[in-house]
């Protein structure tokens, strides 16, 4: 039962939050009715609605060098430093991209951290990720890092099956590690792994309560990152725990009194929900959402950082002083320098995200591009709209297609008088002479351009399917 108390500060009779205590169950609660494993997981509703609560400040934290790097071959030190520079350039001292986290395991990891710290940027702040071993705190301290991530897996899948412990044993172990961080003057950021399959009232809230006690005793923040490890979080109104994103964030704030500034959501995209879940976490009281560049992370990836930059702009009505065109530079860097193929239809960064193939759309765009473009992609992302070619495009249309599609600038640009453009036009004309009525698709034009201008493909090889 919830306690009803008089609050002299507000002069109101208030219902105090019920204090949940640890349920040290003998058998794991695997929520088999929701996660039968041999069937698709179920989305259960209890029709409980929690209030929206948007923190005064919301921001993004980055995991490109941690979760991102776990899912691909490691970056070199130079690549890490370049990507860190890009994050800083994108943030442009707005503080929206507030922190990024690094492994400290190897000499190479540490060299990258030192180089990034030497940059002296305020944002994104360098934080670390360590094994939950007390010796590692010394390392964090020596490197001058103020905050570190610590893994505190919280579902019974992890506690019973992976750690082979009881809930009480796991909680005691986690608390002793958090205490060690605080004793070393380091802010612990507790990664509640697999929270969307965890017993919320039997483990998550009681554990968070203990963490908040430690924070009060040490007079230091103890942050909580709610990790939707398998992307099972759901943001539909009335969804039941443990899958409810808003339920988790509300519950941590309300029942464990975790302040918004210490609360973060870490999403995965297994069910295509990473972006909406992160936005929901913001709206229901987590100040931070954890993302990675291009969403690169374990399996289907994390919440894409660039998507949350755009979401921030939509929710807040401002980009502060972020430089959104850097998103395009980052995408180019991944493709050209890191040999990473961005799926063409990926929002904001894929080469086809603002391309239109339908003749009728191209016609509309020729009249006024606003008709078929989501926003001024040239101004905001330095990505001019891409137009498909048809019977009426002519030399100029074909040259424009090549220049926008391959994003050629300055003297790289192909002129309409270039004889290679005439060759492509011959092919286009033949198509229509032979009775074609549809617009020519990007893939078809790519094939012809590949024959006539192979050098373009050497530059953009990773863009070609
Ligand atoms: C390893 C943990 C912290 C994680 O990244 C996740 O749960 O997705």
Automatic annotation (TrEMBL):
Matching CDD domains: DRE_TIM_Re_CS (cd07947)
Gene3D superfamilies membership: Aldolase class I
Domain Pyruvate carboxyltransferase residues, every copy: 58-328
Official protein name in the record: 2-isopropylmalate synthase
Record key words, sorted: Transferase
InterPro entries reported in the protein's UniProt record: Aldolase_TIM (IPR013785), PYR_CT (IPR000891)
